[in-house]
Amino acid sequence: MPVGYRARHWLPFTQMSGFAAAGAPTFVRASGTTLYDAAGAAVFDAISSVWTTIHGHGHPRIVEAISRQAATLDHATSLGATNPLADELAERLCAATALDAAFFAGDGASAIEAALKMALGYWQACGEPQRVRFVRLRDAYHGDTAGAMGVSDIAVFRSRYAPLIVESLCYEDVAGVLERDDVAAIVFEPRVQAAAGMRLVAPERYAELRATPRPLLIADEIATGFGRTGPMFAYQQLGLAPDLVCLGKGISGGTLALSAVLATQRVYEAFLGAPEANRQFFHGHSYAGNPIACAAALASLDLFAAERTLEHVAELDAEMDALLAPLRAHERVTEVRRAGLMAGIDVTVPAWPVAGELYARGHFTRPIGRTLQLVPPLCSTRDEIAAFVAALTGALDAA
Ligand SMILES: Cc1ncc(COP(=O)(O)O)c(C=O)c1O
Predict the structure, then answer these.
(1) Among candidates 162, 161, 141, 138, which has minimal Cα distance to 152?
(2) Which amino acid residue places its CA nearest to atom 16 of ligand 1?
(3) 223 Cβ closer than 6 Å to some ligand 1 atom
(4) Strands 169-170 and 133-136: what pairing?
(5) Does the C-beta of 197 come closer than 6 Å to ligand 1?
(6) What are the Cα distances from residue 73, in Å, to 63, 81, 92, 96, 176?
(7) Is the pLDDT reported for residue 331 higher than 60?
(8) Residue 233 belongs to a domain
(9) Tell me, what CATH number does 148's domain have?
(10) Cα(16)–Cα(8) distance, integer angstroms
(11) How far is the CA of 326 from the centre of ligand 1 (A)?
(12) Could you give the CA distance from residue 316 to residue 346 in angstroms, rounded to a whole number?
């Protein structure tokens, strides 16, 4: 294969052999809910650039916040130092989650790694160092780093990366998980398992997790957080009080890599002590608390109030079933699942050609197996959703 620009840029989860020939898009510009590619096509970003974009691409308020902050303080380490943007964001995220301390990281997976280590550290500090096991839901996905793979339920991770993986227990398969004395934490995706194809988890499945005492609870809100399922955070609809909440993706409005772990006072305090006690949290990333990313996140939080984002989502939510009805009725669709603005549409035909046809009709999505996803930016209009449904119906007719 000739070595060209494409081959130098090695893409994630992408077969590079013949990649250029596959005619994948090169996105050069974006505005609102639209992505523009180098060939001149304008497409609706029906997956919010993999569940990141919240208020639309290039929102002027976020762009302004980013450029102002870049000119003021681009970056300064968070190791033993802080900055006003990270401080304010920590304050506001604690208020939004009713938790007590925010630890910043980069991507979602690095927030998961930090949360797993916090759980181990917590139990060591509590005099229960035997609590070293983690519990996950069936079909879980929490990211691609070593710890995150261990609490994921992805066959290809196990077959390729077994030497890196510390196996977790499957919540559904192991009885009495809450009573075991070797479990450090239960990690869960609230309501929607996005990477499993927008799989919905019945609220009753979480009921047992309300019991106390129990191992720590880690809510992974990386995909579901910031209004995607309706409320600001999906766990808030489940009556659960997690000890740790992982945020990512939409935290910066979908503009810059930023993630966070929100912790209760109880967990935070387990790491306090005299300097010589060596109890501090031994974990950190170079760009933790990056002021530009935090400025974007603060502007995004402001937009939730200024643009009544959650009210808009509630209005769309009330219309979604009617909007999706033509797909439910389609002979090549077996199921349409949805929580808020996260929808999965299972089809009987190979999904990638359908996505290709959909792209030609002005809509960008990425199949997961035989599931086509619709996870639009929260600012999307009713008409944009209707146009997506019409285009997908047409693409399925043509399949
Ligand atoms: C629920 C969940 N957790 C964690 C991650 C990992 O986030 P990142 O890709 O930012 O590392 C993802 C990514 O899709 C996710 O959906």
Answers:
(1) 141
(2) 223
(3) yes
(4) parallel
(5) no
(6) 15, 14, 20, 26, 50
(7) yes
(8) yes
(9) 3.40.640.10
(10) 10
(11) 31
(12) 21
Q: How far is the CA of 142 from the centre of ligand 1 (A)?
A: 5
pTM above 0.85, yes or no: yes
Question: What is the number of domains present in the chain?
Answer: 1
Supply the range of the domain harboring residue 90.
62-306
Is ligand 1 within 6 A of the CB of residue 220? yes
Write the pLDDT tens digit of every residue in 128-164. Answer: 999 999 999 999 999 999 999 999 999 999 999 999 9
**From the CA of 108, how far away is ligand 1's center (Å)?**
5
For CA atoms 116, 121, 123, 128, the dihedral sign is: positive
Residue 111 Cβ < 6 Å to ligand 1: no
Return the pLDDT at 9.
87
Pocket of ligand 1, candidates 53, 152, 249, 261: which has the most ligand atoms within 8 Å of its Cβ, to mutate?
Answer: 249
For residue 62, give the amino acid letter.
I
Q: Do the domain assignments include residue 359?
A: no
Q: Is residue 16 part of a domain?
A: no
Q: How far is CA 241 from CA 64, 102, 200, 271, in A?
A: 36, 16, 20, 20
Cα dihedral 316→318→324→325 (10° resolution): -150
